[in-house]
Design brief:
homodimer, alpha+beta, Glutaredoxin, about 60% helix, globular
Chain lengths: ~200, ~200
């Protein structure tokens, strides 16, 4: 089955509805998803000189984004509450996601979706270890095991590698998709296009 | 018929495919389009301190935009060539569009689409008066009349009013749509959503 790479950031608002729907949409189009957690902070810092989100630096764009994401979630039947802290620090969660994706993809996807719901439905801290432990357990994972593995050098290296790949490919936001022939698509609203591109290439 | 306001900028790449398709898509959903030319330059200057496009200031985002717009135009069956000058100065064309829209909507829409094709298909200067004269004539308008009217105080005031409205409503990019109940939607890829919102409100 052709694969689509899905670069996502736990702090990213538009990555949330995307992460909740990508498996179903991709399956419907016969495409497999390769989940790639990465960090936007270092990218923003390299490209803009500030690690903060453009949505905080540009109030008009920020206000629109909050309204737009709410509408998207409403349409998708997803709960959404603007978190008090934005962007949240997703470093630990992203490292954990990296090792979980290697060891157990099904549990990893449930964990990733649980982290997004913690951020954008519950509005709790996704860098709090007790919360991450609970999300792992709710996803059906071994919390003790993944809390240790998620803090390992393997996890740090895996996340650094994904972020380095994103930088090398000129990623500037999330979610971002790459098709097997290297086409980049940016944004939850380009998911269908990226999958159609992947299918068209696979059958060409 | 319920109305959707369509704020567009002649320099804006994503406004081009939108301006070419909006009448047909809106008619299919039973919505009337209110065309509102405006200028992004003063908005960028007020919000970022620079009148230039973010696509020039942020190379990774700019490179992606050119590729993305090419894909969108390909999908829509529209010619597209990256112009040598970006963003072009659409001041005169926007003033002309304002008065044409008041006097003769059909000719005005043909003129507007002609200006976009001059910018993004032919790559010629859309501030060159001889080119504007030709586009008016090709749209079926009286070139002598509109060249004079387009430089009048009426035209200047109409464009200034549209831009002031856009500023007051926190517009930050183009195309931007407003529904009758004041919902703002940004981007060619939100056209369908903005029309669906307009319909839903009208039948509520």
């Amino acid at each position: 089955m052709p694969q689509l790479e899905f670069f996502f950031e736990f702090a990213s608002t538009y990555s949330y509805p995307c992460a909740m729907r990508i498996e179903e949409v991709a399956a419907g189009k016969g495409v497999e998803v390769v989940w790639r957690p990465f960090l936007l902070g270092p990218i923003f810092e390299a490209q803009h000189g500030v690690a903060d989100s453009v949505f905080n630096n540009h109030p008009q764009k920020g206000a629109y984004m909050w309204r737009d994401v709410k509408r998207i979630c409403d349409k998708q039947g997803l709960p959404f509450k603007r978190p008090e802290v934005f962007p949240q620090n997703g470093l630990k969660a992203a490292r954990m996601a990296c090792v979980m994706l290697e060891e157990d993809q099904t549990t990893a996807i449930k964990f990733i979706q649980g982290v997004y719901l913690a951020n954008f439905r519950a509005g709790v801290s996704i860098s709090d270890e007790s919360i991450l432990e609970r999300i792992i357990a709710e996803a059906g994972g071994d919390a003790d095991h993944f809390m240790v593995r998620g803090a390992s050098e393997d996890a740090k290296n895996a996340l650094r590698t994904n972020t380095d790949i994103a930088v090398a490919r000129d990623v500037f936001g999330a979610p971002t998709f790459f098709t097997p022939d290297g086409e980049m698509f940016w944004g939850n609203d380009r998911l269908e296009d990226s999958l159609d591109w992947t299918r068209a290439q696979a059958s060409a």
